[in-house]
Write a structure and sequence with these properties.
CATH class of the largest domain: Alpha Beta
Oligomer: single chain
Order of helices and strands: HHHHHEEHEEHHEEHEEHEEHHEEEH
Radius of gyration: 27 Å
Structural class: alpha+beta
Largest sheet: 5 strands, antiparallel
CATH superfamily of the largest domain: CBS-domain
Number of domains: 3
Number of helices: 13
Strand order of the largest sheet: 9-10-13-12-11
CATH architecture of the largest domain: Roll
Length: 348
């Protein structure tokens, strides 16, 4: 009974704090006050999110109601501000495996690599941190930061001693790295990164193998949106519509994005958490890795033709929506015939 009373009191205090911060409406961006206002909101919000883990979601619902109300009113509460708060509310429910960079896309360096090889990977990979592994990617031992590498480079050049640079061992500039399970909550990982000052984490599976990778930038982007700097390459187009309605898709395209575009449910509910990409969907439907040129048909009547791939993966897929349209027309014609037959039988 006391526990229930304390929970009610805590929620009331938290909601009152949020109410005091929000007031009638947030300050405008012209006054540069939104960040201060949002920081105050988080101070009130985050303790509530922590204490309510797996329990009462009253605070979250209250804030969502406030956002909905402000969306319907004329105020200086802009779309970007609403997006940040909405993302913050969703942040507590997301796990590491929801946003991690998959193993196949990890750029890393072998512990036995020379300093020149390390710099070459930094240049080609357009990344500021590299995981360091021993023999295979399943044995990541540390990370190396581009700042440390350039510090060594500048120090050697200042001393006019190229031999020192060649003799520089990777272990002399490597830093520790975090290891986390796929089920870890993003908020917990963010807290851990802040506490340890280690901003890269390797996601390990139940057998200790490398499953994926995350940086603190990946976490922050979940709240504020994509952060692109001067060195980020333009994101590849994962889905392209052809004349006639067919689609060319990268196998890395998320199932959620494809379902949203097509307006179809592509997976049974019990498999929604098991498959994330178009490639995974086709593996699941076929039961094996389809070869280039094969056509896979799903429950909706869509045909997927494998345009590019190899023995281990699918790269590019042609999604034939024209076949779906023809299938729907045939079904409609069939249903019309059946309906006419039933009408005739009823008359007789």
């Amino acid at each position: 009974m006391n526990t229930e009373n304390n929970s009610v009191e805590n929620n009331a205090v938290e909601e009152k704090a949020v109410e005091n911060i929000i007031g009638d409406e947030p300050p405008s961006q012209e006054k540069a006050g939104f960040l201060t206002w949002f920081k105050g909101l988080c101070v009130a919000l985050i303790p509530g999110l922590i204490s309510n883990k797996g329990g009462d979601d009253t605070l979250k619902e209250s804030l969502e109601d406030v956002i909905d109300e402000l969306e319907n009113e004329q105020s200086s509460f802009g779309e970007e501000e609403r997006s940040i708060i909405t993302n913050t509310l969703a942040f507590r429910n997301k796990r590491v495996d929801d946003i991690m960079v998959p193993r196949t896309d990890i750029i890393a360096i072998d512990a036995s690599a020379s300093f020149e090889e390390v710099m070459d990977v930094f240049i080609k990979g357009t990344t500021s941190r590299l995981p360091v592994y021993r023999e295979t990617l399943d044995e990541v031992i540390a990370m190396v930061h581009i700042k440390d590498a350039f510090r060594e480079l500048a120090s050697s050049k200042a001393g006019n001693n190229a031999d020192d640079l060649e003799a520089t061992a990777l272990r002399s500039i490597q830093r520790p790295i975090l290891f986390v399970p796929p089920s870890m909550k993003l908020f917990d990982l963010l807290t851990k990164m802040q506490a340890t000052h280690i901003h890269m984490a390797v996601v390990v599976d139940e057998y200790g193998g490398t499953d994926g990778l995350l940086t603190i930038e990946d976490l922050v982007e979940q709240i504020v949106g994509d952060i692109e700097d001067e060195h980020d390459e333009a994101e590849e187009e994962l889905l392209r519509e052809l004349q006639g309605g067919d689609l060319v898709a990268d196998a890395r395209l998320s199932i959620e994005a494809l379902e949203g575009f097509l307006g179809l449910d592509l997976l049974p509910d019990d498999q929604d958490d098991d498959v994330d990409t178009l490639g995974g969907l086709l593996f699941t439907i076929a039961g094996y890795i389809p070869k280039v040129g094969e056509i896979i048909k799903d429950k909706n009547g869509l045909n997927y033709e494998i345009l590019a791939g190899d023995a281990r993966s699918i790269k590019t897929v042609l999604i034939k929506r024209q076949d779906l349209t023809q299938s729907l027309i045939k079904d409609m014609e069939k249903n019309t015939v059946l309906s006419d037959d039933k009408s005739k039988q009823t008359v007789q």
